[in-house]
Amino acid sequence: MILSNQTYMQLAFVSCLILALLTLPLRDIISIGFFDISDLFVSLMISVFIGFMINEGMPGDNYLSVGLFMLVVITVVTGVVLLNIFVIIPFRSRSENSSATSIRQLEGKEGTVSISITADGVGEVLVYTGFTKINKMAKIYESGNETIAFIEQGTNVLIMDVKDSILYVIPYTNSIQATNKQDPTWNAKQKK
Questions:
Q1: 8-18 as b/e: b if 16+ CB within 10 A
Q2: Quick one: CA dihedral 136, 139, 144, 150, positive or negative?
Q3: pLDDT tens figures, 51-82
Q4: Within 10 A of 24 (CB to CB), how many other CB atoms are there?
């Protein structure tokens, strides 16, 4: 029988491994929400491995019956489904939500223009968040009282709004930068 032959079991293991790797790009296409085509081949690969280990451990001419092998397959598939439902999908949804909310949290932060922004064009702004820096597309924020035609590279900007992953910015000078640019009036030495 096939299940009692080492060569067939090893060939089945390697085949399932190759099929699991080849079907990774099809994960999003052939899936049932929490179980996809590559999960099927991974489950079969694990089942063949467990079946091979059980078969090796049995003394004499006993071999793994089809019923016991199917029980192993069902157990492993159930384990993979539960792992997907309770571990992988919740972490995947949290990571997607955290990146979506982090761009909304950029409102009110300062950035530096890395690619100049024109009135009708899109540029790029570099924003430091914690220990990382983010490059995002940016447009000029249009307020009712003032129109800005151009923001050149290297200008410090304030992020006023975020829509459709585009930052809307205005030029901005914070109070610390403003004091650095002014000449000190206290302790000024008089030249004669």
A1: ebeebbeebbe
A2: positive
A3: 878 777 665 555 567 778 788 889 998 998 88
A4: 11
